[in-house]
Design brief:
This protein is α+β, with helices and mostly antiparallel strands. The chain folds into three domains: 90 residues, Rossmann fold, CATH 3.40.50.20; 60 residues, Dna Ligase, domain 1 (2-Layer Sandwich), CATH 3.30.1490; 96 residues, ATP-grasp fold, B domain (D-amino Acid Aminotransferase, Chain A, domain 1, 2-Layer Sandwich), CATH 3.30.470.20. The chain has nine helices and 16 strands. α1 crosses α9. The mean pLDDT is 93.
């Protein structure tokens, strides 16, 4: 019997509770905790605790979410996971995998480095360089390197409005991240990889009048058959970022599938509601065997 922690930022999260139930069903002991509530006491005997729970006594921690932000609090939450890993606690996904997945620049770099199909990408602080890329592609998707839930993204063309969008992004973030827009059927694919196989996949259909398909932005989950191409690309993307489990987003373009990004802490709710597939059980089974 293992003591398995579940790191969350929102205790009412559907996926977190599904993981909790799956841990219980496998005969292990679950401990849900918020990374925001963790304290570290650096004395002769180091203590990493939340309430009465000594986190170093856990056998494993499944990371549901690390939370947003870019300041010292975010750095500390990742440090906690790294220090628990150094203490011998199994962390799934590994902190490095979560960090690389969250960093769209690094994920895109690794996709290209390993010859995985992905849209052409430009990262620059020069608006003129950004416009050269936009003119080359015709349309570009402008989004934060560290973004989530489809927030603050724009589909841009070579016009004055785009110049304002780029300048605002540059003022806010100091760097621009642009990807070639891939014409598609108004949906993307989210494939769920667990331990180097695809447990299931869904289409995420964009709502009427929108091109953004994230479920948090009104997208609709629909069943998607896992083809050999989907399986190969999704597993390849998860491998290059080092994830045990991941949500891999792809888009259907004129030349086939392209990998957009990898989510190292994906929600499992959409695929369960669309297909009845509970990927949290597979995640817990993998963790129980490691």
């Amino acid at each position: 019997m293992k003591r398995i922690g579940i790191a969350v930022t929102e205790s009412r999260d559907w996926t977190a509770h599904a993981i909790y139930s799956a841990v219980t069903e496998t005969g292990n002991n679950p401990f849900m905790f918020r990374l925001h509530d963790v304290s570290t006491e650096l004395v002769a005997d180091i203590h990493i605790t939340t309430g009465d729970l000594d986190l170093e006594t856990l056998d494993a921690v499944i990371v549901r979410d690390v939370g947003g932000g870019g300041g010292e609090d975010m750095s500390y939450r990742f440090d906690v996971l790294c220090n628990l890993e150094r203490s011998g606690v199994l962390i799934v996904n590994p902190p490095e995998a979560i960090q690389v997945s969250a960093n769209k620049h690094m994920a895109s770099y690794l996709f290209n480095k390993h010859n995985l199909p992905t849209p052409e990408t430009m990262i620059t602080a020069d608006i003129n360089e950004a416009f050269i890329a936009i003119r080359k592609w015709g349309r570009a998707v402008v989004k934060p390197i560290f973004g989530f839930k489809g927030q603050d993204i724009h589909c841009s063309k070579d016009n004055d409005r785009t110049r304002k969008v780029l300048q605002n992004a540059l003022d806010k973030r100091g760097v621009l991240y642009l990807q070639q827009y891939i014409p598609n059927p108004g949906r993307d694919i989210r494939a769920f990889v667990v331990d180097d196989h695809v447990a299931g996949a869904i289409y995420r259909a964009a709502p009427s009048g929108s091109w953004i398909s994230n479920l948090s932005r009104g997208g609709t989950p629909e069943p998607c058959t896992v083809t050999s191409e989907i399986g190969e690309l999704a597993c390849g993307a998860a491998q290059v970022v080092g994830a045990v489990y991941a949500g891999v987003d792809m888009v259907e373009g004129p030349d086939g599938l392209s990998i957009l990004e990898v989510n190292g802490t994906p929600s499992a709710r959409g695929i369960f509601e669309a297909c009845g597939v509970d990927v949290t059980r597979e995640i817990v089974q993998v963790v129980s065997k490691l």
